[in-house]
Each structure stands twice: as structure tokens, then as C-alpha cells.
Amino acid sequence: MGEMTRRVTSIYVLALEPSGDILGARLIAALRDQASVSVSFSGVGGTAMKAAGLDSLFDPSDLAILGIFEVLPKARTVLRRVRDVLADIERVHPDVLVTIDSWGFTGRVHKALAKKNSTVKRVRYVAPQVWAWRPGRAKQLSGWIDHLLTLFPFEPPLFERHGLAATWVGHPITESVFRGSSARFRSENSLGADAQVLTVLPGSRQSEIHTLMPVFGQAIAQLADRLPEISVAIPTLAHVEAEVRAWAKTLPIEAHVVVGSDARDDAFAASSAALSASGTVTLELARAELPHVIAYKVNPFSAFVFRRLTKTRYVNLINVLMGEEVVPECLQERCTAKVLSEVVYSLMKSEPQRRKQLYAFHSALAQLSPGEVAPSDGAAEIIIELSKN
């Protein structure tokens, strides 16, 4: 370990999404534990990575966008930020570059470094979902990176066939223990023990919340007509808190906006169901054993292109792992107030539906852990080893 500690000097970590920010923060902590004090970090990350000690090159929240046509208005900003990152990597010249999410952005960074034959070791932590769409990216990665760390056990063979070293390290959701308290949430928000709560998660990107908040608000109004005693909990993140709080004030029922992971988990514990934007938060809901419905809507042209390219029937990770639609997916044309209110109401009232989801949660999460080594620790071990070569 002494030799290992001396050799690991600089790690550049790049994450643009809130979920990647959390994963990056755990990786930084694991690398610190294994590489001692000589490790240094630079790159781009959000609040969690900053709290872990990263001095971020810029705030990535403006680049958290999804959808082919949604990206176009920000194309100039994206390309400028790619150049900023490349210049910073040239300045720092780290031992290892680790990119976590946003392949449309980070892939450009890897491509540019590969093209100039950079000696920086390049690691991708979280594989692009080639099993879902654009399988050609698997071959593409093999020429651009040195090692791929995957979250799902079925992913390594998809890349190894193209000569890329890939290791399944497991999903970070398996590292965390759910400690949400229904009693604490109810006490802090003056709710009785029997009050029925619905968690509402309209997303973490500006583009998401602006699209989903109006239809979610209409669905909540329709639910309130059938469940007059219901209130909603709205966990959110600091960079969209102002917009979410303004929206919550327009809702026809009592709404409790909370910020931070602890408050979010308390809201999950107090709730009987959730209405959520599609995304990795579904695994957090599964960890909390909270039955839920997912919804999403993007530009119609983006949806058309995605449907033409996709290889999977489902977008929800629980459904992908189970091979069936256990968690209702209300996407595009089905993302309407009428459909959402009906599906959420049915889930809240149907015990068989709820039990089926709970079984699926346990089964799916059990597929995400490779063994005794935590995902962040396994990833850190491989990164440290690469830095020595």
C-alpha cells in the first residue's frame, strides 16, 4: 500500500448529472481511503463531489439536459465546456481520467484525448446503455478508453467482444442503507400519523421540471378530487429548488418541499406511493420500498428518434432487470394528467400491485451487488492499479 500511495497522485473526475455527482463523491471517498493523502482531485462535479473535496472547474447544472433536440439550443455551450475540460486536463495532466455520465459530453472528451494519443489513462465509470440503444457505441468506446466499470452484470460482455477491458463493480445503490423516518417527516411538517402522503419527483434537470411540473400539477389536482385528505411531499435539489417551490404554491393541496438526501428519505418513508420522473431515482425508491409510477416527456422529434433506435421494451431499470413492466411507465402520449392520476390512484388502492412492486424491488436490487466489496471500493482498486502502469 505504501508504494501504491506514492504513485497515485492525480485523478480527474468528470460528472455532470446529480446521480453521477453522488457516485463521484463516493468514488473520491474510496480513493482517499485507499490512496491515503497523496491523491489529489480535479475535474467537474456538483454539490456532493464538492463536499468530498473537489474544486469543480465549473457548475455542471446547466449542462444536465436530455433529448436530442433539447441539446441543440445549448450546443455552443456544450462544445465550449468540452474545450474548457480538455484545456484543464492538459494543464493538470492527471494519472487517470474518470468520466461518469453524459456520454454526449464526456465521449467528446475521450475522443479528443484518444485522437491526440494522450498518455492519460482513461476510465469510464457507468457504461453507456448500449443494450438499450446505439449499440455501435460499444466499439467506439474500445478505441477511446482503457477500462470500463459497469453497474450491471450483463454489460461487460457487450464491450469485451470489442477488446475493451470491462469490470462489473456493482451499483452504488447497494452501498447505502435506507434510514428514512416517517415519524420525523410528519413531525417536521405537522402531519398526523394517518395522513396519506404522495411523493412527487418532477426531475432534477431544468428541462425536465419545466415539462413535467404542469402535467404533474394537473394530475395532483385530479387525485385530490378523489383523495381529499392527501398531501404531497416534493423532494428536490438546490439548483432547481426555487422553481419547484414556486410551482408547489400553485398546487390545490398541501405540499411539502424538502431538500437534501436525508429529508428526501424521510419523505419516502412517510409516503404510500410516488409519482416520479423517469431516471435513476427509481432505484432509490426501490431501496425505500416505495411503490411508484414513472413518467417522462421530451420533444416529439427526440421521442421519435429514440423509439426508432431503442433496443429495449422498457426504460425503467426495475422493469429492465425484471423483464416486465412492474413499475408503470407513462411516457410521451401516456404522460397526461388523466392517465397519471388514474395509474397513481390504482397503485395507491391496489394491494396486489403494491406487493408485486415490492417483490420486484427486492429481486432487482439483489442483482446489482457483485459480492462483499462495495462498488466504490472495487472501482477505486481498479483506478489505482491503472495509475501505476
Helix and strand arrangement:
Layout: H1 2-7, E1 10-14, H2 18-35, E2 40-44, H3 47-51, H4 68-71, H5 75-92, E3 96-99, H6 103-115, E4 121-125, H7 137-142, E5 147-150, H8 156-160, E6 166-168, H9 182-188, E7 197-201, H10 206-226, E8 231-236, H11 241-248, E9 255-259, H12 261-270, E10 273-277, H13 281-287, E11 292-296, H14 300-309, H15 317-322, E12 329-331, H16 337-349, H17 351-366, H18 375-387
Parallel strand pairs: 1-2, 1-3, 3-4, 4-5, 5-6, 7-8, 7-10, 8-9, 10-11, 11-12
CATH level-1 class of the largest domain: Alpha Beta
- The first-to-last residue Cα distance is 15 Å
Provide the structure class. alpha/beta
Number of domain modules: 2
Order of helices and strands: HEHEHHHEHEHEHEHEHEHEHEHEHHEHHH
Query: Strand tally, please?
Result: 12
The average pLDDT is: 88
Low-confidence stretches: 1-8, 66-70
The general outline is globular
Known CATH architecture of the largest domain? 3-Layer(aba) Sandwich
- Rg of Cα set: 21 Å
Number of discrete helical segments: 18
| Quaternary | single chain
- Indicate the CATH topology of the largest domain: Rossmann fold
Commentary on this structure:
The structure is a single chain. With 389 residues, the chain is of the alpha/beta class. It has 2 domains: 2-170 and 370-387, 3-Layer(aba) Sandwich (Rossmann fold), CATH 3.40.50; 182-366, Rossmann fold. It has 18 helices and 12 strands. The strands form 2 sheets. A 6-stranded parallel beta sheet has the order 2-1-3-4-5-6, with helices on both faces. It has a 6-stranded parallel beta sheet with strand order 9-8-7-10-11-12, sandwiched between helices. Helix 5 packs across helix 6 and helix 9 (182-188) packs across helix 12 (261-270). The protein is globular, with a radius of gyration of 21 Å. Mean pLDDT is 88; it is low at 1-8 and 66-70.
